[in-house]
Design goal:
Order of helices and strands: HEEHHHHEEEHEEHHHEEEHHH
Strand content: 25-35%
Shape: rod-shaped
Radius of gyration: 34 Å
Distance between the termini: 100 Å
Strand order of the largest sheet: 2-1-5-4-3
Largest sheet: 5 strands, antiparallel
Structural class: alpha+beta
Number of helices: 12
């Protein structure tokens, strides 16, 4: 192998992206200053070591084969990958791989150019008020938007590499898993659900959660997860539901009181208004609630006419 193929050039140092070149065995042969900054390893530490050992990329064998076929054919592969820094933390990167060929046109190695996903998407995500995450093909968090950090207290350091469903309330978690499975088989189609997410302080927040499959978009290679706070809407809906329940209970009680009045009037021959006075007096004398007494009369638990206490 010709060492000159992996020689440093001013251009490779000035790209503003991490540049890593490996031979066909995956051994690092070149590691620029931006790679040092991005991954934490110095060039002296990295050169001669396995790139997989240094970065531990979350790349399946199938994806590795796809990348290798592409670069061997003279093409370029681009996509999002979750990689590791020297300190063990995760970094989400947009990676472009291309082949390095010798003078005879034979593949001699691979050069990778990487930029942090945050850096690439920040101009887009920083200007939206809606919280967003980018997930990899396994549902793990690759990027946290500024709005998601603000709304839920999440950071790439705290949730990076975690599956999306670990951020979901346990009662909603299985639905989130199934939603993600639906999303990854529906390229470009948004699938949504209402659920509770776990904020950094341990509290929960209701959100509209929308997943959009961008796994085949070479600029993202991930699933976009948009989250919109709907706590206020859920709270208002709960209040309406409670009010309706209270009204239904009151109406039901009123109906039973009217039925009890009618039954007393029919049994005693009293006018309906007089029957109501009998009902109210009996309830008061026996420390009963009107609606409970009426219910017991209607269901036959209290015999008519009202002559004795119904409860000891």
């Amino acid at each position: 192998m010709q060492d000159g193929l992996f020689a440093a050039t001013p251009l490779m140092e000035s790209l503003g992206q991490a540049v890593v070149a490996t031979d066909l065995e995956g051994c690092v042969r070149y590691w620029n200053a931006e790679a040092e900054r991005m991954y934490g390893w110095t060039a002296e530490e990295a050169i001669g070591r396995s790139a997989a050992e240094l970065n531990q990329p979350s790349v399946s064998k199938g994806l590795c084969d796809e990348i290798f076929r592409t670069v061997r054919a003279g093409g370029q592969w681009s996509g999002g990958l979750s990689q590791r820094r020297k300190d063990g933390s995760s970094v989400s990167a947009l990676v472009t791989d291309a082949g390095i060929f010798d003078a005879d046109g034979r593949l001699a190695g691979v050069v990778s150019l990487s930029v942090g996903v945050g850096s690439a998407l920040r101009p887009l995500l920083a200007h939206t008020s809606e919280a967003a995450l980018i997930l990899d093909s396994a549902g793990r968090v690759n990027h946290v938007s500024p709005a998601a950090a603000r709304d839920f207290g999440w950071t790439e350091g705290s949730v990076g590499g975690e599956p999306l469903w670990e951020l979901i309330h346990p009662d909603d978690r299985q639905d989130a898993v199934e939603l993600y499975r639906d999303a990854v088989v529906s390229a470009g189609t948004g699938t949504a659900m209402e659920c509770r997410v776990l904020q950094s302080d341990g509290s929960t927040c209701w959100v509209d959660l929308l997943l959009t499959n961008l796994l085949h978009d070479p600029a993202v290679r991930g699933v976009m997860c948009n989250l919109r706070d709907i706590n206020e809407r859920i709270h208002e809906a709960q209040q309406r539901s409670e009010l309706i329940e209270q009204l239904q209970t009151a109406l039901h009680s009123r109906v039973e009181i009217e039925q009890a009045k009618g039954m007393i009037a029919a049994r005693t021959g009293l006018a309906v208004d007089k029957a109501f006075l009998v009902l109210r007096r009996f309830a008061r004398d026996n420390n009963l609630k009107m609606h409970d007494l009426a219910h017991d009369i209607v269901t036959g638990e209290v015999p008519l006419p009202l002559r004795r206490p119904v409860r000891a």
